[in-house]
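Structural prep section.
Before we set up the soaks we want a predicted structure of the protein with BIS(adenosine)-5'-pentaphosphate in place, mainly to decide which crystallisation condition to try first. Input record follows.
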Amino acid sequence: MVNIILLGPPGAGKGTQAKRLVEERGMVQLSTGDMLREAKTSGTEMGNRVAEVMARGELVTDEIVIGLIEEKITGHAGGGFIFDGFPRTLKQADALAELMNRTGQTLDAVIEMQVDDAALVARITGRFTCGNCGEVYHEVTRPPKVAGVCDVCGSTDMRKRADDNEDALKQRLMEYYKKTSPLIGYYYAKNQLSAVDGLAEMDAVSEAIASLLDKA
Ligand code: AP5
Ligand code: MG
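Run finished without errors. Recording the tokens verbatim:
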């Protein structure tokens, strides 16, 4: 089983491709964004504080997300992990390397999903998600077969994210360029970086990722 990182700005398609890999290859998706959104619904003080930071489009502290990932990795040794939205800072990248080392696992590929900013606004503002199973949709590029009904689980509980508006997106992009994009150089220097065209159609992106995984 290979362990991979999907690296890319908001709306690059990390979650969409991760879900396909879970279905097709039985891999384990570790999305820190999803974990933090779950913590938010717990209604604890920490959950509320995190929700405010996320709604503004800022990054949550390294300590919190590293703690979340550590819990998942140590509780599920054996891997096949897809890191989706983690690491997002150099400190998180170092922590992940240490954690993989400590648990006797390897990081097999870092896949940069390349997109341009103009496409991201349309992707983010058209996105909605099934509140029951988490399937990701888009008003134009990935509508459900029956409007308002989830293809996967039949739920009608479709939701929009609190940070999917233009103001929060601007902040998320700023955070990406300032804090996360240095990871491209970091993994390039470690000889672990590959790239796919994230602007291609979803199936073409899946194929490109599959061929990288088969080589990893
Ligand atoms: P997170 O949930 O990770 O959000 P993000 O990185 O902003 O990325 P998104 O989930 O918005 O985009 P995606 O790449 O998954 O795209 P998707 O597949 O949905 O993080 C949210 C927040 O949590 C952060 O801002 C931060 O506050 C906090 N956080 C999370 N992790 C953290 C960390 N490690 N450290 C600190 N803070 C952290 O696709 C988008 C849309 O496009 C969908 O509608 C989809 O249907 C459509 N689409 C996808 N692919 C295609 C395609 N090929 N063609 C056409 N449409 C497509
Ligand atoms: Mg996502």
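Observations: The longest strand covers residues 109-114.
Flagged for discussion at group meeting.
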